[in-house]
Design a protein that fits this description.
Strands 45, 47, 48, 51, 52 and 53 form a 6-stranded mixed sheet that branches. This protein has a 5-stranded antiparallel sheet with strand order 6-7-8-9-31, with no helix packed on it. A 5-stranded antiparallel sheet has the order 10-11-12-13-30, with no helix packed on it. By secondary structure, it is mostly beta strands.
């Protein structure tokens, strides 16, 4: 009993002393050469080897707690095929190979102890699949990225599929960007960023494309990593295979003025993200931490004389970095627990990394999606492993119609031209109704499915809205008396004209006040119109004021009233006595003065007047004019 207690105390002491930094090797041939390491929520980690499908749980001291080995009778493709899920379980993506002509992606969900919860593949008998990466979105859905080949016509697609946490299929999207390795990540906006060779495809969570871009000068096809202001991806450049890096902002615009090339060679590293926003990469003999723009923060090497080649890295819940890899010439796995500076007690000098910007191969070009191949495929079944589904062909009539040219102001309803009982619809706009109304020029596709074998059909139509004829007769027109005006129609090839006076030429002359219109019909029958008002105005103005009048009620010259020749915008008349006191005023040019002040006749004599008026000349209000003088009242 005392001996057992002593051994237990020694083990606890060993763990406590060595919990800071250590390196351990495991000489088990089952581990393979492609390890992945993932931190667990108990401050331990798991190591999974892709080529041997072995999963081992380690505690914080690097002591194995359990190990599982899986046999799926498959061949493996890809680089990021094992992840930890939000529920602390795991998912692995492998290839299930039936024969030389048929292989499919197999997704296997494990619990936190490595037990299989479910294992499902998705296939339809005509697509051979090469799975590359799997990731999990914020809702716990699983997204796989693969290449698929239609074995009937040898057409290659890039396939993005989404499964829920139970393995039920949500969607499968095809993208036509060629048969190249790649990978996909879930982005911070819960969308997706796909790398397929030298092409980046940014999508929404449902797989609809937001932007694409491509670049040249590099090869190798690891998935990108997201930093706070964009995405970084790796490759190596010809002819010497120097490891290189590219950065794109969140809108897909390349940064740095080029790519950055290092003095390291060979297989590019996978980036790992830290909680502080920095990223870390393992360059075989060196572990290097960068900021979001690849400025070096820290670097260290553990290779030395131990012959260790680092592969992957993870950070424990307390921030401790754990490195794993293999020893060259063997399948021995090693695990190194590092300090904050990535050091252990077995450090070596390593090769300092040098980065320089090179623009000689930087030719970013946008990539358009292929509307006839970018399809959500709903006819691929999810089923339990090794289950084969037989499907029946059930052709239907499906046609959106011929490409069409329509008027700019029109709205076009797109729908199947045949009456068929399709049940599921997906338009290129994202709509899921049987018809859509479009008002913009573009190429539109509709994907439909039906229950007979879950078959899928797709058709594409181009709708072009004819450029509008700008029919603008201008502002309302005002001319002087006895003048005419000529309206001119817009220049237009193959157009016909119809004026309000029933003339059909390209001009119309008018001389009468009124509203006039023009209707223009273009070559495809689109009608455009405009209306304008035509007015006549006096183009000069004068005001005549009499110098006397006789308010004696004899019917002759009994009132005082100015006369004017023009249109007036305002009028203000004031009559003053000899002491400057107002005795009459009016703002009505048609009102006269009868020679009375407060109903009493004024005395004979001289009086003063002031009149201020504002004329309207050719429809425009002119400056105010003030005119003064005297008038004589005679009885």
């Amino acid at each position: 009993m005392k001996k057992s207690i002593a051994l237990l105390l020694m083990m606890m002491f060993y763990c406590a002393v060595n919990a800071q930094q250590f390196i351990k090797t495991f000489g088990d041939a089952d581990y393979g050469k492609n390890p992945r390491i993932i931190a667990t929520n108990d401050n331990g980690w798991v190591v999974f080897t892709l080529d041997s499908l072995r999963l081992t749980k380690f505690n914080n001291c690097g002591i194995p707690q359990w190990s599982r080995k899986y046999d799926t009778h498959n061949s493996l493709i890809g680089l990021d095929n094992f992840i930890m899920t939000n529920d602390n379980g795991f998912v692995m993506l492998t290839q299930l190979k039936y024969n030389s002509n048929m292989a499919v992606g197999l997704v296997t969900k494990l619990n936190a102890q490595g037990d299989i919860l479910w294992s499902k593949s998705f296939e339809d008998g005509i697509y051979r699949q090469w799975p590359y990466s799997i990731s999990e979105d914020q809702q716990g859905n699983l997204i796989t990225y693969s290449n698929v080949e239609n074995i009937q016509n040898n057409i290659i697609f890039n396939m993005l599929s989404k499964l829920n946490s139970n393995g039920d299929l949500i969607y499968i999207n095809f993208y036509d960007h060629g048969w190249i390795w790649g990978g996909a990540i879930v982005t911070s906006d819960n969308g997706l960023l796909i790398r397929t060779g030298n092409t980046l495809i940014k999508t929404t969570n449902s797989g609809n494309i937001q932007w694409t871009t491509s670049f040249t000068g590099t090869k190798y096809y690891l998935a990108p990593i997201e930093v706070s202001d964009g995405y970084i991806l790796t490759g190596h450049t010809s002819p010497n295979n120097e490891i290189s890096f590219y950065k794109y902002n969140l809108q897909g615009i390349q940064q740095w003025g080029g790519y950055r090339k290092s003095n390291y060679f060979g297989t590019p590293p996978t980036f790992h993200k830290k909680n502080n926003g920095n990223i870390c990469a393992v360059f075989n003999d060196a572990t290097i931490e960068f900021d979001k723009d690849l400025n070096i923060i820290k670097q260290a090497s553990i290779q030395g004389n131990m012959g260790m080649i680092g592969k992957k890295l993870c950070y424990l819940t307390d921030g401790t970095p754990i490195l794993t890899g293999i020893r060259p010439g063997s399948s021995d796995l090693f695990i190194a627990k590092l300090d904050d500076a990535y050091h252990t007690n077995c450090d070596a000098a390593g090769l300092p990394i040098v980065l320089e910007t090179d623009t000689s191969f930087l030719i970013p070009t946008p990539v358009s999606k292929s509307t006839h191949n970018l399809n959500t495929i709903n006819h691929v079944f999810v089923y339990d492993t090794f289950t084969i589904v037989t499907k029946l062909a059930c052709p239907r009539n499906f046609y959106l119609g011929n490409d069409t040219l329509v008027c700019a102001s029109a709205a076009v309803i797109l729908q199947n031209q045949f009456i068929e009982p399709f049940e599921n619809f997906l338009w290129s706009t994202g709509a899921t109704t049987s018809s859509i109304t479009v008002t913009q020029t573009g190429k539109y596709w509709l994907l439909v499915t039906y229950n007979c074998g879950e078959e899928t059909l797709i058709d594409t139509i181009t709708v072009t809205f004819n450029p509008p004829i700008i029919t603008n007769l201008g502002t309302d027109v005002v001319v002087c008396e006895k003048e005419t005006y000529t309206f001119k129609a817009p220049s237009c090839d193959s157009c016909s004209y119809w004026w309000s006076d029933n003339s059909v030429g390209d001009t119309m002359m008018v001389s009468t006040i009124g509203d006039y219109w023009l209707m223009v019909t273009d070559s495809i029958g689109c009608v455009y119109s405009d209306t304008v008002a035509f007015n006549i105005s006096k183009c000069e103005c004068f005001l005549w004021v009499p110098n006397s009048f006789t308010p004696n009620n004899d019917g002759l010259n009994d009132v005082f009233q100015p006369s004017y020749y023009c249109d007036l915008a305002s009028f203000d008349l004031k009559i003053l006595n000899r002491w400057g006191q107002p005795i009459f005023s009016s703002e009505n040019a048609m009102e006269s003065w009868n020679g009375k002040d407060r109903n009493a006749s004024v005395q004979s004599g001289v009086y003063f007047y002031t009149v201020t008026y504002t004329p309207i000349i050719k429809g425009q209000i002119d400056k105010p004019i003030t005119q003064t003088g005297v008038i004589t009242v005679i009885y």
